[in-house]
Design brief:
Number of strands: 7
Distance between the termini: 34 Å
Strand content: 15-25%
CATH class: Alpha Beta
CATH superfamily: Alpha/Beta hydrolase fold, catalytic domain
Number of helices: 9
Largest sheet: 7 strands, mixed
CATH architecture: 3-Layer(aba) Sandwich
Strand order of the largest sheet: 1-3-2-4-5-6-7
Order of helices and strands: EEHHEHEHEHHEHEHH
Radius of gyration: 16 Å
Oligomer: single chain
Helix content: 40-55%
CATH topology: Rossmann fold
Structural class: alpha/beta
């Protein structure tokens, strides 16, 4: 069961958090306050996060499986269409959703590209191992969950070629100091420069923690 909260009024906007975050992260950083002025904002917990923490089987942490949290939310809300914005891990689930779900209108990615993690296999395996070691050291189950998420992501083929990219429907927001920037720039600048918003001097973490870098552009994108 997916735990969620809703704020504001207007068309629905679903927000998907990143790894090691939860639905309240969107509230604490100020995203909900700004976005709820133009949308009904729904925030929820992915499997293994927030109210859904605990020992989770690896097969529940693949990218397609994690999009089922969003599918459940859509069904529970009874909405016919919606916009979606995700950060990092949450954006990856959004790309998968956009490649298959016709109800999604606008998709916004914060700090994530639509390519397969296989393009960065070495980095993902390194992070997976680091999280497992933290789990072994601390005994905390959430680190084992994060390790599994990194590892299971490698089985996802990406959505770059599956999405029918349109300027008015898809936006990737990326800080130029983000570790994901070079690959994102390479992917999007091939054919889809208009779908790529670069935040000068901003890293991965601050793309989420400091909404002021992009919130005005995002609201404008949602309203056009």
């Amino acid at each position: 069961m997916t735990s969620y909260l809703s704020f504001g009024s207007g068309p629905s906007l679903i927000l998907g958090h990143g790894m090691a975050q939860n639905k309240k992260s969107w509230i604490e950083t100020g995203w909900v306050d700004r976005l709820s002025s133009v949308r009904t904002v729904h925030v929820f917990d992915f499997e293994g996060h927030g109210s859904n923490e605990g020992k989770i089987d690896s097969n529940k942490l693949t990218v397609p499986e994690m999009t089922k949290n969003i599918d459940y939310l859509i069904e529970n809300l009874g909405i016919n269409d919606f916009d979606y914005m995700g950060f990092s891990m949450g954006a990856r689930a959004g790309f998968e959703l956009a490649s298959k779900n016709k109800k999604i209108n606008k998709l916004i990615s914060l700090g994530m590209h639509p390519g397969s993690p296989k393009l960065e296999e070495r980095r993902f395996k390194k992070k997976s191992l680091a999280m497992k070691k933290l789990g072994d050291k601390t005994g905390k189950e959430n680190y084992f969950t994060y390790s599994k998420i990194f590892n299971e992501a490698l089985s996802w083929e990406g959505a770059y070629k599956k999405i029918k990219w349109k300027k008015e429907n898809h936006l990737i927001v990326m800080g130029e100091k983000d570790d994901n920037f070079d690959l994102t720039e390479k992917l999007m600048n091939q054919n889809y420069k208009d779908n790529f918003l670069v935040l000068n001097g901003v890293n991965h973490k601050n793309t989420f923690d400091e909404p002021e870098h992009s919130i005005d552009a995002i609201i404008n994108f949602l309203q056009t």
